[in-house]
Amino acid sequence: MPEIVRFSDTIEPLVRFIEETPRSEILDRTLEKLRSGVPPQTMLTASVLAVARSADLPPGHHGGPLHPIAGLHAVSQLVARLDGEQRFLPVLQHVALSNKHIHDPVTGPYSLLDFAPLDAGGIEATKAAFLKAAGRGESNKADHLFLWLWDHIPAIEAFDLLLSVAIPKNVLDDHYFIFPAFAWRALETLGHEHLKFLMRPAVRYVARFPTQRSVPEVDALIEQHQLLTRILRRRTGADETGTIGRIGEAIGGCTTYGEIPVLLAQALADGLSLEGAGEALSIGAAGLFLRSLTGNPMDVHLHTSANLRRYLLRLDGLSMRNKLLILLLWHTGPEVKSTQYRMEPAPQADPAAVAALPMRTEAALLEAITQSIRDQPPTDWSTVTNLGKMLAVPEVKETVNLARQYVQLRYDPEALLRRLGEIVCHDSFTEMHAFKHHQAIVEEFHATREPWRWMHLVCGVQAAAISFGKNMEIYEEALDLLHAA
After folding, report:
1. Using omega within 30 degrees of 0 as the cis cutoff, is the peptide bond preceding 413 cis?
2. Which of 2, 83, 134, 161 is most buried by a 10 A CB count?
3. Residues of the chain with pLDDT under 50
4. Buried b / exposed e across 409-428, counting CB within 10 Å, b at 16+?
5. Is 146 left (phi over 0), alpha (psi -120 to 50) or beta?
6. Backbone angles phi, psi at 294, to 5 degrees
7. Confidence (pLDDT) at 139
8. 417's torsion region: left (phi>0), alpha (psi -120 to 50) or beta?
9. Which helix (H) or strand (E) holds 114?
């Protein structure tokens, strides 16, 4: 009979520690190990391996290995930016979330078994068999087949095949695209030693329901502009700045998201590079996020999904069709698309409200932003019947206005990013969404050209104001442990 997956002797004991430690003890015992010299990245590796091995995928997308794996890149990058024992806080949040899902009766007990790869008759036959299994929702068989493919074709080719199923399913749930793409990005932290295992939950997730075959209007745009037959520029340059800004601002100002792929397809046909289109999408996503009235702290896919797509567009080895769909299907995810019904007019933040603010020094304004985030009114959960329909309280706009003033005065962006990194460590509510959004704004700020890069900083402040205080249980307990030393 198949047995549970086992890891090397160097990491297996730490994986078992995360799996077997009771929830009531996981924080203090993890902190003991970190203080005794276990590197934070090693602890994060053990955390994702444990939750992937011992927590099942739930019917929806909350619980199990999805968000701990998807959040690994963001958490690992934040750890590297924090100092002293403060860098333990994101690790403790991650380990606590993995341990929670392992012990949750919705997703555990569970064991991911070590079974033999399945050869359907060579490379092309096995690819076809995987697509057929995914089309039928045969996730277990798809897992068998993909284990064989990892060993017989280049990893990027296998990933491209997986994306060919995942990207169209973005229409059904943003996470069909987000999960495998973030799992791939997690390999930047883990390395390829655990590639086949780490991707198994993503393969099973992507293949678990019948395939979404196409989005006809996007296919029509690709055909209309002959985007698969013309030679497309891949890398951007200074000569594209005006076009990128124009398209980005048009996306950020649109009221119907179906207009977005039309704008991007036309721009590509007119000569805009794929990278340039990704940057325009990022600018537009930031503009739409600032206009959004959402109060759901997990509604950050506008930004995180655009950031992830820019990352994928830079990867060599992905097919041109997948890269086009990565761009042109951004607006179709339910958690992205729903925001178009809860929007304020452009531009945001309100220029008049920002102009009316009193002048402060950089240090004073940074503290005012921080205090405004911390002073957000608590949520009355007895009135929340649908998290996805929560609206932001008016006080969020006050915080956003302060952030807009900060960037207008050209105060130090790195100081604001560092402060937001410290604030995001409070979050125990969003299953890593707040961490992913923080990392997205860090990356997008540095990857976006003037004069649009500032938008990402303000988006980071807006998201922090929405999510702060929803649940800080893990942070508060961890803080007590840190101070007790």
Report:
1. no
2. 134
3. none
4. eebebeebbebbbbbbbbbb
5. alpha
6. -60, 145
7. 96
8. alpha
9. strand 113-114
- The secondary structure element, H or E, covering residue 143 is helix 139-152
The pLDDT of residue 209 is: 86
Going from the C-alpha of 132 to that of each of 110, 215, 219, the distances in angstroms are: 27, 19, 21
Query: In the block, which residue shows the tokens 């002293």?
Result: 84
Peptide bond into 451 cis (omega under 30): yes
Note whether 323 and 312 are within 8 A (CB): yes
Strands 3-4 and 113-114 turn out to be antiparallel
Q: CA 331, CA 171: separation in Å to the nearest integer? A: 9
Tokens of 237: 């340059």
Q: Is 296 in a helix, a strand, or coil?
A: coil
DSSP state for residue 376 in the 8-state scheme:
P
Sign of torsion over alpha carbons 126, 128, 131, 136: negative
What is the C-alpha to C-alpha distance for residues 140 and 137, in angstroms, rounded to an integer? Answer: 9
- Bridge partner residues of 3 (DSSP): 114
Q: What is the pLDDT of residues 384-434, one digit of tens each?
A: 888 878 888 999 999 999 999 999 999 999 999 999 999 999 999 999 999
Element (H, E) at 4: strand 3-4
pTM: 0.96
Q: Encoding tokens for residue 33?
A: 């190990």
